[in-house]
Amino acid sequence: MLRKKGGRSSKNKGYRAEIEVVKWLNASGIEAERVPLSGADKNNRGDVLIKKVLRAEVKWRAKLPKIIREGLKEHNLAFIKEDYKGLVVVVAPDFFIDIFKGYLKSKEEEL
């Protein structure tokens, strides 16, 4: 019997990952909330809404490609370029918090 990809357990795993990210951001002092029905509502893109200005997609994988872990082993950022595709930037979690808090502070100073 063939099993379909996705399904209830995949949705549950995605939901748990989204909740984990929201809790981590909130614990780090950054207001965040899960977007309800994020996968089902085509007009409401993104899984997590951060400070009501930034939408983020959350993915949970059993294992990340080695190149991502290697890039962040000793650095805060990894720039990854795929042949014939755009650049992807991967940021270490603690560094993301520092960057985002700095961004928020600069926006507050502009007001």
The fraction of residues assigned to DSSP E strands is: 15-25%
**Mean residue pLDDT:** 85
Helix content: 40-55%
For this structure, the quaternary state is single chain
Specify the overall morphology.
Answer: globular
Order of helices and strands: HEEEHEEH
Structural class: alpha+beta
Individual helix count: 3
Summed up, the domain count is 2
In spatial order, strands of the major sheet run: 1-2-3
Structural description of this entry:
With 111 residues, the protein is of the alpha+beta class. It has three helices and five strands. The protein has a three-stranded antiparallel sheet with strand order 1-2-3, covered by helices on one side. Strands 4-5 form a two-stranded antiparallel sheet. The longest helix is centred in the first third of the chain and has 20 residues, at 8-27. 5% of the residues are buried. The model has no long low-confidence stretch (mean pLDDT 85).
Overview in brief:
This protein has 111 residues and is an alpha+beta fold. It has helices at 8-27, 66-72, 93-110; strands at 32-34, 48-50, 54-56, 77-81, 87-91.
What's the topology here?
Layout: H1 8-27, E1 32-34, E2 48-50, E3 54-56, H2 66-72, E4 77-81, E5 87-91, H3 93-110
Antiparallel strand pairs: 1-2, 2-3, 4-5
Primary descriptors:
alpha+beta, single chain, 17% strand, globular, 41% helix
